[in-house]
Design goal:
By secondary structure, the protein is α/β, with parallel strands linked by helices. Helix content is 40%, strand content 20%. The protein binds adenosine-5'-diphosphate (ADP).
């Protein structure tokens, strides 16, 4: 772990030499290279208390002052971009080029919310009462918490951290056990940027500590909000845990994204978009294309073009620039991908490319293209979270929309078509929180990211993201002269 930026070298370098507590494993080598503290529930309670002491002053600071800290954090992230990207590749595995893109994306949330510092923070409404002002205002929630996943170790944090801090809150973060270093790096940079002490705590631990740390956060009446990105199972558990104290809850859970290619699509564009929607982060993304439906009249042409492109993808350690596909996060992830491919095969799918794990060091699975998967295959219902493209043919628009919607998830759907009427009709018909038309990438800080159905609650990014990190005060003030 070679770090160039002095702030990161000071904060993180020692973690490579302690060899105690919770190991951080490089998935490309299957070896630990750093160790982070195991935070106890008592330490979580102390962090909550410290956050509660620090938050009121931060909440009273002006929006411009809070935005200025974010602007400085964004600059530091820029200065330290190469270190931050390498940390992601080391702890998560994604190819370095993608890690660099993630840092730019992560920074874009910090910049976006820094830019919102001077924005309107409420409305004056047309009062129905004489001599009476009717207005709304955004206030801090107070002490807030986030639990984040490993697949985007930096961006999934800043998407929550930036609006939380702009909104005047204290922020307690439990990062995923696999990727704590990106979280600790952001904390070091935020404090270097002038964030007062006590407002941003990183609560690290192993897989077996997650429930205790999470429980200490959700059971505390001082914590006013929990924002979670992760699996649907854990999200439901946390939602139930938050009921007792009626916390604000934002959930970004699993997707099961359909990707539809109509017969009037630009085929080259659709192939290129699908490769991005599927193979970004080695398929480990909640917005990854999971089920691909291609119109029967273009199926063979489309699949041939796809097979040729998938066969050319290079797999290996993310630090080697020739690789497009990195390791999966761990051996369990490889087992799941293998299980999905075997199940699809048994139920009639044909494997055209890949279809095997890669033996040796690290947790690698070959980029895979399988076609004609059956409706009852496991991968039709569950996210694979790996480099497996599963394609099926369709012939009727209404039927394929119904099939795309036949899931309890509702995060994102993609489709390709050149017809304006079809674009309007299909966009309306898809029951998803986000729809990508003629693109395989919809994520940006300026748009409200989020799902419907069992994919989640609330939105992240955009103005809506700030609303989710603040509470609304409505003031009705009568100014009648005596
Ligand atoms: P994945 O299976 O992809 O790791 P999870 O939903 O299990 O997805 O993990 C997302 C985040 O939720 C991680 O930070 C993980 O440590 C945390 N987590 C897992 N189980 C619990 C739990 N019982 N309580 C609180 N947090 C949890």
């Amino acid at each position: 772990m070679q770090l160039e930026h002095p702030v990161l070298a000071r904060a993180l370098q020692p973690l490579a030499h302690t060899e105690t507590e919770v190991p951080v494993v490089d998935p490309a080598r299957g070896e630990a290279f750093a160790w982070v503290p195991r935070v106890t529930p008592e330490e979580v309670a102390a962090a909550i208390a410290e956050a509660a002491r620090a938050q009121p002053a931060w909440g009273r600071a002006t929006w411009a002052e809070r935005a200025a800290v974010l602007a400085r954090l964004a600059r530091l992230m820029s200065d330290a971009a190469e270190d931050l990207a390498r940390l992601i590749t080391l702890e998560e595995g994604k190819p370095l080029a993608e890690a660099r893109a993630e840092i730019a994306y992560a920074r874009s949330f910090v910049e976006y919310y820094a830019g919102m510092g001077g924005t309107e923070i409420g409305h004056v409404l047309a009062s129905p009462f004489p001599d009476t002002e009717v207005r709304t205002e955004l206030e801090p929630l107070g002490v807030t918490a986030a639990i984040t996943p490993w697949n985007f170790p930096s961006a999934m944090i800043t998407r929550k951290l930036a609006p939380a801090l702009l909104g005047g809150n204290a922020f307690l973060l439990k990062p995923a056990e696999a990727t704590p270093l990106s979280a600790l790096a952001l904390s070091a940079l935020a404090h270097e940027a002038g964030l007062p002490r006590g407002l941003f705590h990183v609560l690290t631990g192993g897989r077996n500590d997650a429930a205790a740390i999470g429980g200490a956060l959700t059971s505390s009446p001082v914590v006013k909000k929990l924002s979670f990105t992760g699996s649907t199972t854990v999200g439901k558990l946390l939602l139930a845990q938050c009921a007792d104290t009626v916390k604000r809850v934002t959930l970004e859970l699993g997707g099961n994204a359909p990707f539809l290619v109509f017969d009037d699509a630009d085929l080259d564009a659709a192939v290129a978009g699908l490769l991005v929607a599927k193979f970004r982060n080695t398929g480990q993304s909640c917005v990854a294309a999971q089920r691909v439906y291609v119109h029967a009249s273009i199926f063979d042409r489309f699949v041939d073009a796809l097979a040729e492109r998938v066969a050319r993808l290079e797999t290996g350690p993310g630090l080697d620039p020739k690789n497009h596909i990195g390791p999966l996060i761990d051996a369990r992830a490889v087992d799941k991908v293998e299980g999905h491919v075997e199940d699809a095969r048994e139920k009639g799918a044909r494997v055209l490319v890949g279809g095997t794990r890669i033996e040796g060091r690290g947790s690698f699975y070959a980029p895979t293209l399988l076609v004609d998967f059956s409706k009852d295959a496991r991968l039709a219902a569950e996210e694979t979270f790996g480099p497996v493209l599963a394609v099926r043919r369709f012939s009727d628009e209404a039927e394929v929309i119904a099939e795309a919607n036949a899931t309890r998830a509702g995060l994102v759907a993609y489709f390709y078509s050149e017809s304006a009427r079809r674009i309007a009709r299909v966009s309306r018909g898809l029951e998803f929180g986000m729809v990508g038309v003629n693109t395989g990438l919809v994520s940006t800080a300026v748009a409200p990211f989020g799902g419907i159905k069992e994919s989640g609650l609330g939105r992240e990014g955009a103005r809506e993201g700030l609303y989710d990190w603040t509470r609304l005060k409505y003031v009705c003030a009568r100014y009648q002269e005596p």
